[in-house]
Design a protein that fits this description.
single chain; Fumarase C, Chain B, domain 1; 61% helix; 4% strand; mainly alpha; Fumarase C, Chain A, domain 2; two-stranded antiparallel ribbon; 462 residues
Length: 462
C-alpha cells in the first residue's frame, strides 16, 4: 500500500531515510490514545453530518478490532508506516476499504499527533501524581512513628543542631508537596484539546471541537490552531517539574547512602533494597539509593534536549517536534518508577536510635541554645556568640563537652559567668525549646504532620 501522503511524490523514500524518519518504534505506545482520538473524531463527524452513522459505526468497529489486535500483539509495525497514526489508518483502510479513508476528513497528522500526546500526557501524569501522593503519605506515616526519635541536623555536612527524624522527614514532605503542586498546575495548562486544528489553520468543514473535547475528557479546545500544533510548552514544563522532583529524589537518596554507611549507621535499609559484592562477602551496598541518585541525570537530559529542539523552530509545525516523545516518555517512566521505588525503600527502612544517639554527643549541638540563653540574660547576641565560640575551643582543648564544664572553667572563659546561668543542655531540651511555627519541638512537628495529612487528603479526594 502506498504512503497515505504520497500523491505529490514520484519516488519512494530512500531506505535509510525511511528508517531515520520513522517514529513507530517509540510512538506505538500511543495506540490507545490514537484510537480514542479517532473514535471521538469520527463520532463528531457523524453528529455534524460529515459522514453517515453507518460509516461511523463501521470505522469505530474496525478501530476497536485494531486496538484488540495491537494489545494482543497480533499486528506487526514497520518503518514504512512511519508512525502509529499512519499504521492504524493504513490497517483501517486495508480492513474496510474506502470508508476507512473518510476518517481523516477535517484532520491533519499535526493535530492528530498532538491530541494523542496530550491524551497520553493526561493519563500518565495522573499515575505519576498518584505515586507522588503515595510518597507523601509514606513520609507522613514514617514521621508519625518518629516524632520523639532524636536526630542530628547538619549544615555544610557538619553537626549543627539537634532535630528529630520526624522533623527531617517533614522537610522532604514539603519538597514533594511542591512537586505535586507543580504537576497539578502543569496538568491544568495541558488540559486542552488540539483536535480540529488541522495542519495549522483549522478546517473548512463545520466541525464541533467542543464536542470532541467533551468526548475525550478535555476541559476545552485549544484557542489558536497554529499554537495548538506547535505548542510543546506543557511537555517542557512537565520535564522541568520532573527534573526538580528528581533532584529531590536524588538529595534524599544521597542521605540514604551516607546514613547507611559504617561511619553513620543511622538507618538499616531492608535487604530487599540492597545488593552485595561479587568479591567481598561482608558488603551490603545501598545500590538502589545510588541508582535513584543517578537517575536524575537522564531526566535533566530530557529537559535540555527538548529545550534545545524547540529553541530555533519557527511557526508552526516542524519535523523537529518528533523528538518530543522520547524525551517525555523517558522522563515519565523514570520519574514514576523512581518515586515508587523511593516510597517502598523508605517504608522498609528503620532508623537506629541507639546509633543516632551516640552521634548526638558530637559537634556541640546545643551551642546555639547557650548563645540564645546568654542573649536573653542581657548579653548582646554577637558577644554571646563569641563567648560560646570560646567555650567550644576550651572544650576541644580539654577533650570534654559543655556538660563537663564546672564553675571555674566557665569563669576562665568569661568573667560574666559569675552572674549568668546555662540553659538545659540536654538534646531533648534543645529540640523542645524550638516550638515556634516550623520548629523542631515534637508538638510543632505534630502540627506539621496534621496539616500535611489534611492537605494530602484534599488532593486524594479532589
Amino acid at each position: 500500500m502506498p504512503n497515505l501522503w504520497g500523491g505529490r511524490f514520484e519516488k519512494e523514500m530512500d531506505a535509510i531515510v525511511e528508517k531515520f524518519n520513522a517514529s513507530i518504534g517509540f510512538d506505538k505506545r500511543l495506540y490507545n490514545c490514537d484510537i480514542d482520538g479517532s473514535i471521538a473524531h469520527v463520532t463528531m463527524l457523524a453528529e455534524t453530518g460529515i459522514v453517515t452513522e453507518r460509516e461511523k459505526d463501521d470505522i469505530v468497529s474496525a478501530l476497536e478490532g485494531i486496538r484488540r489486535d495491537i494489545a494482543d500483539d497480533r499486528l506487526t509495525f514497520t518503518t514504512r508506516q512511519e508512525d502509529i497514526h499512519m499504521a492504524v489508518e493504513e490497517t483501517l483502510i486495508a480492513r474496510i476499504g474506502a470508508t476507512g479513508k473518510k476518517l481523516h476528513t477535517a484532520r491533519s497528522r499535526n493535530d492528530q499527533a498532538q491530541v494523542d500526546v496530550r491524551l497520553y500526557f493526561m493519563r500518565e501524569t495522573k499515575e505519576i501524581l498518584e505515586e507522588l501522593v503515595n510518597l507523601g503519605q509514606v513520609l507522613i506515616d514514617k514521621a508519625s512513628e518518629n516524632t520523639e526519635t532524636l536526630f542530628v541536623g547538619f549544615t555544610h555536612m557538619q553537626h549543627a543542631q539537634p532535630v528529630t527524624v520526624a522533623f527531617h522527614l517533614m522537610a522532604y514532605f514539603q519538597m514533594f508537596r511542591r512537586d505535586i503542586e507543580r504537576l497539578i498546575d502543569t496538568r491544568r495548562r495541558a488540559d486542552r484539546n488540539p483536535l480540529g486544528s488541522g495542519a495549522l489553520g483549522g478546517t473548512t468543514f463545520n466541525i464541533d471541537r467542543h464536542r470532541t473535547s467533551e468526548l475525550l475528557g478535555f476541559c476545552a479546545p485549544t484557542e489558536n490552531s497554529m499554537d495548538a500544533v506547535s505548542d510543546r510548552d506543557y511537555i517542557i514544563e512537565f520535564l522541568s517539574a520532573a527534573s526538580i522532583s528528581m533532584m529531590h529524589v536524588s538529595r534524599f537518596a544521597e542521605e540514604f547512602v551516607y546514613w547507611n554507611s559504617s561511619e553513620f549507621r543511622y538507618i538499616a535499609i531492608d535487604d530487599s533494597f540492597c545488593t552485595g559484592s561479587s568479591m567481598m562477602p561482608q558488603k551490603k551496598n545501598p545500590d538502589i539509593a545510588e541508582l535513584l541518585r543517578g537517575k536524575v541525570g537522564r531526566v535533566y537530559g530530557d529537559l535540555v534536549a527538548l529545550l534545545t529542539v524547540m529553541k530555533g523552530t519557527p511557526m508552526s509545525f516542524n519535523k523537529d517536534f518528533q523528538e518530543d516523545k522520547e524525551a517525555m516518555f523517558d522522563a515519565m517512566d523514570t520519574w514514576r518508577t523512581s518515586i515508587a521505588v523511593l516510597s517502598a525503600m523508605l517504608l522498609k527502612t528503620r532508623f537506629i536510635a541507639d546509633e543516632i544517639n551516640r552521634h548526638l554527643s558530637k559537634g556541640f549541638l546545643v551551642a546555639t541554645d547557650i548563645a540564645d540563653s546568654l542573649a536573653r540574660q542581657g548579653i548582646p547576641f554577637r558577644e554571646s556568640h563569641e563567648i560560646v565560640g570560646k567555650m567550644v575551643k576550651y572544650c576541644e582543648n580539654k577533650s570534654c563537652g559543655f556538660e563537663d564544664l564546672n564553675k571555674d572553667d566557665l569563669l576562665a572563659i568569661d568573667a560574666r559567668f559569675a552572674s549568668i546561668t546555662l540553659p538545659d543542655l540536654s538534646i531533648m531540651g534543645s529540640v523542645n525549646a524550638r516550638a515556634t511555627f516550623g520548629g523542631t519541638a515534637p508538638s510543632e512537628v505534630l502540627r506539621q504532620i496534621k496539616t500535611g495529612k489534611e492537605w494530602l487528603d484534599g488532593i486524594k479526594n479532589g
